[in-house]
Amino acid sequence: GTFLTQVPLSLHGSVVKQRMQMYNSPYRGLWDCVQTVTRKEGLGAFYRSYSTQLTMNIPFQAVHFMIYELMQEQLNPHRHYHPGSHIVSGAAAGAISAAITTPLDVCKTLLNTQENVVLSSVNVSGQLSGMANTFRTVYRLGGLPAFFKGAQARIIYQMPSTAIAWSVYEFFKYFLTKQQMEHEAGPRSRK
Which of 55, 85, 113, 171 could disulfide-link to 76, CB 3.0 to 4.6 Å? Predict the structure, then answer.
């Protein structure tokens, strides 16, 4: 019980999700996966890709915001509330960010899953750890193209989520600004 509350849910959930998605996953369910991983590999298994996750999130978010702002500059230079421009800009920002950070996502997935079939194919015994080792292993598995496996799926996943996120953000920004302006104009118009 206390173990799950101490582990950051996104990191913990990512490890469990990826382990259960593996081909021929040996786990019967969520709790079986958590217990088996904890028993066989220890709590460190849930943090093995932590540095990769942080390293991936920083460039992803930086590129994401820059692309969104550049797209808005082109599509909506006056920065009015325009849902179409927010959707297109958000989708483009998500797609480009996802494409650029796919190599880090590939490494994170390998660290989280520790797929024995993959690791034994490049003569790695035991547990893979560290970003440098993971980068070398991915390169040995398939050269530069191996870093972009799943890029299309990652882009397709990110596009709608970032488009929706930016649309919702811009809607509430517009709505709250409008409410505030009406509230501020209200007392003045009564004087």
Answer: 85
